[in-house]
Amino acid sequence: MCVLLAYEAPADSLIVRLSTAFSNNDALEIHILFHELISQAYKHNYASGNIWQNYLTHFMLTNENFFSLSCERRDSPSGSLKDVALHDFEAFLRLFNLKNEHMHYVNNFTGNEANSSPICEISKAIAESKTAKRIYDIVTNFYKRHGAGNLAFNKAFRFDSDEDKFVPVPDENVGDVKLSDIIGYEIQKKELTANTEAFISGRPANNVLLYGDGGTGKSTSIKALLNEYAPRGLRAVEIFRHQFRDILHITEMLRRRNYYFVLFIDDLSFEENESEYKYLKAVIEGGIESRPDNVLIYATSNRRHIVREVWKDRSDMEHEGDIHRSDTVEEKLSLASRFGVAINYSSPSRKTYHDIVLTLAKNAGLDVNDKELLKGSDAWEIRHGGMTGRAARQYVDYLLGRITE
What is the pLDDT of residues 347-376, one digit of tens each? Predict the structure, then answer.
């Protein structure tokens, strides 16, 4: 049994459990663990080739420790840190080349070759290595180019407050939408892109509030940005309202990572009796601790001023009719003012709405007369919330569903 120093292997990990089962020649336990190994291979998309070696590679590249994070920051590990890493790579080399009568089950797996991840290629390179130094070079180069942990293999995350960790959102759940897929809103997309371009280029950039009518593409625009800029290091972490108390902690966890993070808050709004917005205000601007340069907040809202204002908020105004002298109102409106960029997404004109319908129908391969298509789309929007991109998408999906019946 090997001893891992930099790469901590929990007692319940497959590495420890399989190594123990091999040492004890426990055939039943080995077969049970092989089933778990195959399940992990499909889950993480490396079910091709030697999935035992792929598992070890995945473990190394997604493990966040003082060595991997140091490499991600492009530091040059030396001294004891390098010695500890080399020790672990020697242990991994022995595990990679493990010989056991049961290993043929996972040596040449052919379950998912067409969709195998980069893990498989790196695994092959490591398996061909003759020395720990060669593995050291392969792995450290990966960390420096792509980063360490799940951040290297995923672009979108949610924060698990109970587990205190970032949970990856599968890429297929994010979708592959591009900004060019959003019809219209050219000025809005240009402003959003310019701010994001400045951000990932290390220049000053602002927090962004996308506000306006529902179904106009606010959330879709942020997903499209993520898809286009993820190869350049952009990552998104979705934050929910009940997690606003954790935002300071979340930003601190991201502070020294070698990526650019957008904290994505969808449908941001507060009722009059809710005070969680005060936590958000402190993070955006105004707290004693400055926001990290690699973190911005991108929020969407159907309200321009985010916090609902009611008539009784006006009761403490200092001058008749001057609502903005009300301390209560100023307290609420100050949250929206802390977003340096506010972009309005209003409902499209009828012409733009028709353009969206026609484009979506064409992309979907719908063979419908344009005149009939637009006539139906006008009837649809009356019954489904007005002229929005969402209504256009729902109408086209409805037609697609009818064709397959």
Answer: 889 999 999 999 999 988 888 889 999 999
pLDDT tens digit string along 80-114?
889 999 999 998 898 888 777 777 777 776 655 55
Which tokens belong to 246? 């954790």
Q: Compute the Cα dihedral for 330, 336, 339, 340 and give only its sign.
A: negative
Contact 42, 116 (CB under 8 A): no
Distance CA 359, CA 366 (A): 10
Q: 88, 89, 91, 100: which is closest to 33 by C-alpha?
A: 100
Task: Give the residue from 43, 64, 67 showing the smallest Cα distance to 55.
Answer: 43
Q: What does the pLDDT read at residue 334?
A: 63
> Are the C-beta atoms of residues 84 and 15 closer than 8 Å to each other?
no
Tell me the DSSP string of 70-84: HHHTT----HHHHHH
Contact predicate 398/358, CB 8 Å: no
The 3-state DSSP class for residue 366 equals coil
28, amino acid identity: L
For 91, residues 6+ apart whose C-beta sits below 8 A from its C-beta are 2, 3, 4
DSSP string computed for 382-397: HHTTSS-HHHHHHHHH
Query: Which of 161, 162, 158 lies closest to 173, judged by CA?
Result: 158
Q: What is the DSSP string of 160-196?
A: ETTTTEEEEPPHHHH----GGGS-S-HHHHHHHHHHH
Cα–Cα distance measured from residue 57 to residue 61, given in angstroms and rounded to the nearest whole number: 6
CA–CA separation, 174 and 44 (whole Å): 16
Q: How many whole angstroms separate alpha carbon 55 and alpha carbon 299?
A: 37
Residue 120: is its pLDDT beyond 60? yes
Cα–Cα dist 358/255, whole Å: 44
- Helix locations, 273-388, DSSP H: 277-284, 327-337, 350-363, 370-383
pLDDT digits (tens, 9 = 90+) for 18-35: 888 888 888 888 888 888
Q: What is the DSSP letter of 346?
A: P
